Amino acid sequence: MPNVSQAPMPDAETAAVLSQLTDETALLAYARMRAAAGDTTAAEAVCRTCLERRPDSREALLALGTLYEQTRRLAEALKLYDGAIAAAPDFAEAYRQRGAVKFRLNDRLGAFDDLKKALALRPDLGEAFDGLLSSGRQ
After folding, report:
1. From residue 97, how far is each of 28, 51, 131 by CA, in Å?
2. d(C-alpha 138, C-alpha 29), whole Å
3. Rg of the chain taking only CA atoms, in angstroms
4. Is domain 1-88 in CATH 2.60.120.10, yes or no?
């Protein structure tokens, strides 16, 4: 598992949510909502709290990796996706996300291998290649 440091201090609203909710799915939905609103500090605090509670949570590793990818912290995102795959070797979404990061880091062969693995696990992820190819054209 990647070394996940302690969660940043959450704001009052996030602290209240963290004290009331224990369901990881609900917490990660809240983290995604806060990230979409531009509050990446709160989103990170929630994801890290989930990982403190359950360090091998593939969903929390993926959520924090996605947040790091969105904020251009690609090396950190890559480590989190590695952790998600280590926790769940059949987690197609983690391979897809890791492949996208590898592509952005100019590791084209690594990206191809990850996307191929994602498609083998979930053939419906065909858009993984489309999204990757279109992102490379920008």
Report:
1. 17, 19, 11
2. 30
3. 15
4. no
**What are the residue boundaries of the structural domains of the chain, listed by start?**
1-88, 90-138
Residues 18-43 pLDDT 10s: 888 899 999 999 999 999 999 999 99
Q: How far apart are CA 97 and CA 77, in angstroms?
A: 9
Among residues 91, 92, 97, 104, which one has the least CA distance to residue 134? 104
**What HEC string does 121-132 produce?**
HCHHHHHHHHHH
pLDDT in tens, 65-123: 999 999 999 999 999 999 999 999 999 999 999 999 999 999 999 999 999 999 999 98
Hey, what are 111's tokens? 């990206």
CA angle 66, 81, 71 (to 5 degrees): 30
